[in-house]
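Hey, sorry to bother you again with one of my protein questions. I've been puzzling over a protein and I'd love to understand its fold better. Take your time with it, there's no hurry, and the full record follows here:
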Amino acid sequence: MLPLRAVTCNLSIVSTSKREFRYTAKRVTPYANEPVPKPRRKRYDNGTPLPNWLLIIVTLVLGAVVAVVSIIVSARHAQRPATITISDSDLRVSSWGAGSITVPLASITDVQLLNESPWLSRISGTASGAILAGRVSSSSHGAGRAYLNRDLPPFIRVDYLDNHNVRQWLYFNSWEDSAQTAALFEQLSAGRS
């Protein structure tokens, strides 16, 4: 005679009015020589058989790749030269990632050509290697704007009055050629007079 399997059962009443019963097998003990069945592979919350820790690692790796690519793209765009335009009525300087500034020529109070790079620290904007573009601060002059390639002197400093008659300052230079910066200074000096 074959040995019997031991089955533990649990009967529970689901609804007392209809007298429905639910049968739940808690544990089945196998025969003495019968191999223990392997448990089925567990499926996780989202229906995939991947464990949650693996999904977290994949998400972190993909996030890191996206972050590195965006930093590389930003650094390449930060090296684009600033656009400097002097028209009959205003001076406009703009750079990718640092915005732009337009200064009416009538509000300019002083223009200087400097051979040494000013000591500035970035508040917002772009600072990549020798490039400094955006809002900056100076220990002697306070906050202002700068669009500089520090490796390519000379530098132009413009002092002007904003819409509220508050004194502001701006440093800029040509990011491509020193002679072009000198030509911009001459054009700016001639436009003021």
The longest helix spans residues 52-78. Residues 83-192 form a domain with the PH-domain like fold (CATH 2.30.29). The first strand starts at residue 7 and ends at 15. Helices lie at 52-78, 178-192.
